[in-house]
Structures are given as C-alpha cells and as structure tokens.
Amino acid sequence: MNKYIYMDNAATTQLNTEVFEEMKKYLLEYHGNPSSIYSLGRQSKQALDEARLQIGKMLHTSHKEIYFTSGGTESNNWGIQGVLRNNKKGKHLITSKIEHKSVLSTFEALETEGYDVTYLDVNQEGMIDLNQLENSIREDTVLVSIMLANNETGVIQDIKDISKLIKEKNKDIYFHTDAVQGAGKLELDVKALGVDLLSISAHKFHGPKGIGALYIKKGTDIENILFGGAQERGLRPGTENIASIMGMSKALTLAVESINSRVEKVKALEHYMIDQLKNRLEDIIFNGLTAKRLPGYINIAIKGVSNESLLMNLDIEKICVSSGSACTSGSIKQSHVIKAMGLDEAYAVLRFSLNEKNTKKEIDYVVEKLKLIINRLS
Amino acid sequence: MSLDKNKVVLGMSGGVDSSVAAYLLKEQGYDVIGVTMKIWQDDSKKIADDGGCCSLSAVEDARMVANKLGIPFYVMDFQKIFQEKVIDLFLDEYGKGRTPNPCIACNRFIKFEELLQRSHDLGAYYVATGHYAKKVYDEENDRYLLKKSKADQKDQTYALFNMTQNQLKHTLFPLGDFTSKEKIRAIADELDLIVADKPDSQEICFVDDDYVDFIKENADYQITKGNFVDTEGNILGQHQGIVNYTIGQRRGLGITFGKPAYVVDINGEKNEVVIGDNKDTFSKGLIARDLNFIPFEQLDEELSVQAKIRYNARPKPAQLIPLGEDRVKVIFGEVRAVTLGQAVVFYDEENNNIIGGGTIEERID
Questions:
Q1: CATH no. for A5-14+259-377
Q2: Which end of chain A is more exposed for a tag (fewer CB within 10 A), N or C?
Q3: What pLDDT does residue A48 have?
Q4: pTM of the predicted protein model
C-alpha cells in the first residue's frame, strides 16, 4: 500500500513527469523574457507561440483565440467580467446554482454593481432545465455562463444544446463555459460546443498549478480586467509564465492523446467502486449517478454522520477524498451543489475522483475503511 | 468502538500555551491531533488584521505550529453550538443585568463536552488543552481531582470547576506542572515556534474590542437608557443602559454624585442601576445554584472552604451551607462586589484542590 491513497483528482492532480521535464528546460535553460529582443528572449517567444498553437489545436481552434491566464479562477473572472466592461446592451446575466465559487462569486460581485442575475436550478441529477433557461432569457440578457462539468459530481451539461438555444434566441448574448473539470477528460471542440468563452486550468490534467487559459472566440468584445504591459495581445498583461505555459501545453497534449485509453480504465474502476459501495454500505445515496458524468467521479451522501468527522477519520487512514470545497480556514461547509440537487443538510457528502492510476485494491481498502468509520460514527 | 489511549485531540487556539502543549504531548509519546475550533468568525470578512483567539489568523498560526511539529491539524466547526450555548447565554445574562462568564460556559459545553465527543469520533481517548490546571487520580476514593496549576499567576481552574468525573478522566492538561508562563515561552522560543512572542489573549475571544458594541450588534433586545437610583429608590440621573455597568464599578459612570459612588446593584426588570457608598458594595455572602463538585458527588453537610467570586480574585475563607436542590449558601462574613451571573469557585487551598463551584444567583446582606 502506498503512503496514501489519492482519490481527489477533481481537486488537483499530480504533475506528470514528462510535463516536469518539459518545464525544467524553460525554468533553467530558456529563461528569457519572451518580450525581449535578443535571441534568448526570442526562443521563449517561439516556445510561447508553439504552446499557443498546440493548445488551440487541442481545443480544435486557432491559436489566435487562446489567451494565457493564471488559472481557472482568473479565466472565469476575466471571461465573465471582461465582456461586460464595454457592455451597454443590458443588465441581465444568467448562470446556474451549481457553478464553481470563482463563477458564483463573480456574479455576486456583479449583482452589487447593478446587474440582475438569474441562477438556474438543477434537477436531482444535477442537470439544468433548458426550458427554464429559455424562459429566463430576456431582451436585456447579455451573458450566460454554464459550466461544462461540475467539480463535485462530474455531471456534464449539454453545452451544445445550451449554446444553440441561446444563440437562436439572441446571437449577441455571450456564452461562457467553465470547462476546468472537463478539459483533458473530454474531447473539447470549442467550435462544436458553440461557446464564446471557455476556461481551462492545467493542474486538473496533470499540469502545473497557477496556469490556465481562456478561449476567446474571434470577434468577442472583451476588455482587460488587469492592466499593464502588452502581453497576450494587450489583453492580459504580465511576463508570461513560460515554463508553466509549456507544461500546460504538454500536459493537455498528453491528456488528449490518451483520452480513450484512460477513460476506459477509469470508467472500469468507477463501476467497480460504485458496485463495492452499493454492496457493502447501507443507506447511501449516489448523487448524479444516472446523469452523464466525467469518468471517475463518484459523489455519495451518507445519512446520520458528521461530514467533518468522516473526512478527518479518512485522513487519519491516509485516504485523500473531499466533500464539496474546503473554505480557507479548512472547515467544511455544506455543498451548494448537493443542496441545489435537493439534498438536505443531514447528510455527509463524499466525492471520490479517480484516475487511471488508482487500483481495485485501493478501492477495496477505501470502501472497507469507510464502512468501519461509518459504523463507528453512526 | 474502542478508544485509543495513546491518541489525544489537542485544542489549539493559535496561542503559545496550546502550541507548547502540542510539543509536550508529542514528547510524551502521544499521537497528537491538533484541532482549532471554529467558533466565531465570518468567512466573508476580509480585513487584513491580526484577529484574536481562534480568528482566521489564529487558525493559520495553529496550523503552522502543528505542521512544524509534524502533527495532523484540523479545523472543526463549532459555530452553531457555540452560538447556542455560549453567545446566546452571554447576551441573555447581560440583558437581565447580570455579568456572565462565557469562558466557563465554553469549557463546560464546548471544549469538554462537544470537542471531547468529536475527539472520540476520531478514536481518541483524550482531549487536551493548554489550560494552566492539573488533573490527578485519587486512587483511594476512585475520583479524578482537579488541582491548581503550579504557575499560580496563570492558574485557570476557576473556569474549569464544572468538569465532571468522566470529562476529567478523558482530559489531559500538559501545562499543569509548569511554574510559570515564562517557562512555556522559553520552550516555544527554543523550538522557534512562530507564536513564541505572541501576547497573551485578553478578555473574551468573540468580542473584538468592546463587549457593549458586541451586545448592540448581536442581541435581540435594545440597550435602553434608564435611571440611576440610590439604595432608597430615589432617581439620581440617567444611565446609558444596564449592560454598561458591573457591580462594584466606580469609574466611568458618566455622572458625578458629589461623593465616591459605586454600582451596588443592577435591576434588569426595572432597567435601574443602583448607586451607593463603598460600604453598600459589601455583602455577607451569596447563594449559588447549578453546582458541580469534584472530590465528591454532592454536598451533604456544611464545609469550610476558600472561595473566590471572580477570576482575578484571591480565594477567601467561606462556609458552605447546602440548601438542597442544587443550591448552596456561601457565607464569607464580608465580601465585596458579589456579581450575579459570575461563578463562585471553592478551593481546598491546603491541597490545591478545586472542590467545585456554581453560578451566583443572589447576594446575602
């Protein structure tokens, strides 16, 4: 048995060693500033251009529509706020109740600035209702942001249908999707998805932390939210994090190239784990089980035990899993996602997010420990 | 399930005492789990300040100490129960013209009840704190005893008189044998803990600055002006709301009476503050209720003890006379500024034992 069992790949992933090797070159050797005129700088610039081309390719689009950011949070903030800075068209925005904090908090901040925000419900399986979306769109709606796949349940929304619906109603409404969880696990074709803005973050697909990208469809009227130098075509200043950008490019390439084989493995592990949980634990509820989900995501609710004690006990057994998202002080809050899916507070919620490196042996161990802990706590 | 006697959950406030306690327990060979209790803080508050005990920055301090010592660390959420058992009581008592001691309520309901339960949930037999107090087992009588800390200046047993036998059984006080706070600081310094020079926490942990402001912001009652009256009931002037005053208070009454004047009583029902001479602040004794005794289950006969009626007081000789139904008469002969809502705690000074205590219900003149 390893030092610990890691089943929290939705939170972050381990850096791929090939990615690390790629990054090392740009940390130690090609350290030039891409904006510099001399050859060392030009080398960095060339690498940057190649990374942009490559990431564009992985998202089935032009490199001219790829902008580097500091990660998912910045991409979401920029994608949403950036298109509103020049906006004179209206004051209405639409999102869902199950978005990541970086999206929800942005909308909450926009509400204080005078925007009117509709938060769409989800059903028990965590899916938004297209009828509700359609009915929510108003004359003055300027932006819709709906996540591609949820970080707690892995439930995947029908982004294609959503964008079609929005654009048919009013082609001027911007559509942003937070694809942070989906990237590297699903084939992402931004053109087919029909979105204007799409956020990704490298550390979710075995790349480094602190680097991400925003896809901005050509013609989108977006403004800066950060001000400074002319990097990223003048839209996002700051000396480029070249090593991390190269790492992200490599990580996304490796992830996309291996999607089919990995998904197969992870799905098999997921099914095995679901069976084990079903067979060996009583009174547990699977959240979003029947919906279309990202591979390896299992979200369960357990009645009558404290979420806090459950997670701490699992940690003591060296098992890394989570409930919703942890707050800064480290205490555990009721998940807004699971609440939106209609589950009341008397449940403890656990999210397992597996990857291809997990084993059946690990799953057996985790389910066994979980059973013991639940028995002790209830 | 069986609890692990080698496992202990330590309440870490982010202060120097509990930080050193973590080190001492670890040195003694325990599996220590550090826990900061989240009791009163607002996640949405973003002001970059230092904060008090158990604030967000206190959590960070505790976490850094735990990581440095190599022990697991968690934040446990106690906000709901702390609100119910400590803050609501605090607000209610002030509203009634009494002066509560929230630390006693916290020790009783939060640290040695709820935290102990959650420690058991983690398989730990013991809960530990950085209190200056000592626990010993009296084999002869099969009782756990609570003794005063050897650091006389820092002794915190006043706030621990409510501990039950079961709680004492499952509690460790690693600082009990230290003779001064300086020695604790010296250990922290030697270990290069970031909290080594942190000042002692003062006052009430959930109150930022002024408890009156806290009451204004959080109570479901209004603080209303009322009358200062003399001991005969004659109106002397207007006060700013009874929560501003405490028994025995002389300064800051906001009004002059031409002679030294003291708060001698607070009448919550009439919203009156009674003003008198120094001699009026003295009483013969008091009646306390809601009792707990440590070396024995209950008080069946009169007992001579030393007793103190507030945290910073020196114990004075007193006679306990049981009144049945969980009440006791405590006769001092003469005692100043008996304050309703505070605790009276009984000591056997000769043996450094805490006999028990209760909540002061009325004065006896």
A1: 3.90.1150.10
A2: N
A3: 96
A4: 0.88
